[in-house]
Automatic annotation (TrEMBL):
Protein name: DUF3043 domain-containing protein
Residues passing through the membrane, by range: 103-122, 128-150
Annotated region described as Disordered, given as residue ranges: 1-61
Source species of the chain: Arsenicicoccus piscis
Lineage summary: Bacteria, Bacillati, Actinomycetota, Actinomycetes, Micrococcales
Record has Transmembrane helix as a keyword: yes
Assigned keywords, A-Z: Membrane, Transmembrane, Transmembrane helix
Top-rank lineage group of the source organism: Bacteria
Compositionally biased residues, Basic and acidic residues: 34-61
């Protein structure tokens, strides 16, 4: 009987002491966890139990990362581009080339047509027909290269007018020419301007 009363008195005193103690500023309000418990919670096995599932998960994550990077590269985001495509100068060149109708971009279709024509007319053994196809093919390529040389001079002039004192990096003329010779829908990164929307 006296033992029960004593236990009640101790419980009452503990409650009063906890109520009377003011809460310290910045206190967590909970006991600090033991170090060994925290280390056990963070501990992971070096080699996963299911290696096949882990490898499958890694492959899926790598595939997803590649898809995201490829999509960002197609959009022209700088972090995802190849080193040759990075920089404001390269972006300016791409936009200018994509905004115009280039003779060079039709070179590949012309070459395909010329190849089919040469195969078709070879049975007639006509020298003038073959010479005409030859002149058409190489004449178009030459016209495309001349057109790109003139276009690059315009690109450089317009960029330097917009950014006085700026210099194009080496190889920009080749970069512009390679992009101009590609069919518009196959260019990487994808064109972000429409025909006639020249930069600057």
């Amino acid at each position: 009987m006296f033992g029960r009363q004593k236990k009640k008195d101790e419980t009452l005193q503990e409650q009063l002491s906890t109520q009377s103690e003011p809460a310290r500023p910045g206190a967590k309000g909970r006991p600090t966890p033991k170090r060994r418990d925290q280390e056990a919670a963070r501990r992971r096995p070096i080699v996963p139990e299911d290696r096949k599932a882990a490898a499958k998960g890694d492959r899926a994550a790598a595939r997803e990362a590649r898809v995201k990077q490829n999509a960002a590269m197609m959009r022209g985001e700088q972090w995802a581009l190849m080193p040759r495509d990075r920089g404001p100068e390269r972006q300016f060149i791409r936009d200018y080339v994509d905004a115009r109708w280039n003779i060079a971009e039709f070179a590949m279709p012309v070459l395909l047509v010329a190849m089919v024509m040469s195969l078709f007319f070879s049975r007639f053994q006509s020298s003038w027909l073959m010479s005409a196809i030859f002149m058409l093919t190489y004449g178009w390529l030459l016209a495309g290269m001349i057109d790109m040389a003139i276009t690059y001079r315009r690109i450089k002039k317009r960029y330097q007018a917009k950014h006085p004192g700026a210099e194009f990096p080496r190889g920009s003329g080749w970069y512009a020419g390679v992009r101009a010779f590609q069919i518009r829908r196959t260019r990487v990164p994808r064109p972000r301007v429409k025909r006639g929307e020249f930069p600057g």
